[in-house]
# Entry
Amino acid sequence: MTWWEGKEIKKDSKTRSYEIPTEVTKANSHSFFEGFLSAAKHISHWIISYRDQAYPSEAEIKKIVSLNGKSSRMKSKTHQYSISAKHGENSLAKERLFICSPSGAKAAVSYERNVHTRILGTVDSTSLSTEAEKAGDKQFRFILTHAGTNRNGDHFTSDELKQAAETAVGKKIDLSHSQEFRDIVGGILQANYIEDGENSRVECVGELYTEESEPARLAYKLMKRGIVSYVSMECDYETGECSVCGKKIKNKGEYCSHLKNFKGRQYQNKPCFEILRGVTFTGMGLLDREGADERAEIKKVAHYHNEQRGECSMADDKNTRDTPVDPAGLSEAEKDKLISKQQSEIDRLMKDNEGLQKKLDEAQAAHQAAVRKTKANTLLKTWEEAGREFESDTSRSAEIDRLLKMSDDAFAATEEAVSAIAASKKKPKDDPDDEDLDDEEEDKKKKKRKANLKSDAGVSPASSSNPASNDLEAKLTRGFMAAYKDRAGLPAGE
# Structure
């Protein structure tokens, strides 16, 4: 905070700024940066935080950095500024971070998915290729992107791809657009634009740093097996254009209503996409599924056998597996070792299978219990609507538990009996004797009727009635007898 010592704070400044000898304006910004950065040549690495709407322009910054003998790479991210134009359009812009190093330094940069990123500077692809040969890094061929519109609503013209193809050289290869440094597994060595009508595309050759990186070795094996077979390009662009209204934009904050709401879809039966201009490729991500360009895929994977390099197509390689070991050529000790290894694998698979079966059984049991509980609650609700009453919530819960413990046959019989009771309640028969009863006598009669519907677990309910006398009586008899036998632990046939 000693930097503020002796400074005069501007009284009319909301941000508490102070007077400076030379104010940087649009007119003098270029010369100011030239002098400022030239004076910093003795510093090996520069980190410059920069707003994309500021001056000088990004291209001018790049040129000034280059003239001072440094290469640069840059990461940008859309940012909502809280001080300037707090609620206006200027509060949304891209914040750029330039990383500047002495020319010749190898660049590596992380990438945030769906955020365009530019890497400035060049990499000598010849030297990289030579290093790859010496280190044994694995190479592969892939389609980076096609001309036309991808599923994200980004549109690449043929002319744009012709100019942008070479910018892919020297850029990173990562895992699923990861931002982690450890997930950078390789680099792009070659890139060419192929004119082929509707199939026009940018094809590249990449290498995986398998000698230095465990993730790269895993990526190579997954590619050889055909598990990872798609790629997704990463790029930055200068300007975009709406296919519907033709509006030119520099960042997502300037999107028109069409791009905001319909990009990659239809607007009034017309495709809505953003035409990208000034494209710069910044890298490529390996995917195990289709990306925005469903035809961007790995075509060939290099492999090594006995120090001899060859190349095979993905289609052929998917059918290639480890060659089985011939037991005839093994010693007894080797055979025992192989058998032991195979037995261990069998034991592991059996153990895994047992675990899966146990989880399946538990899931099925939980499902059946949930179904039974739902049915028990529905049954009890029907019974209550038909006149069943409980003294407390505890007694009601006890009845639910009893229903849950019933056998399927006993539960079905109880359901049938309760349904019959509910049906009879829907059409009550007038009892002429009830007309002359007062409230007290009527309550006693109701209790007596309910008592006749209950059975005690220790006493067999009366079974002297003829089940054939009428349907309701037969259903009630079967239901209560089944419930009684279930509670008493008697076989269903007794």
About this structure: Residues 112 and 362 are 41 Å apart (CA to CA). The first helix runs from residue 29 to 38.
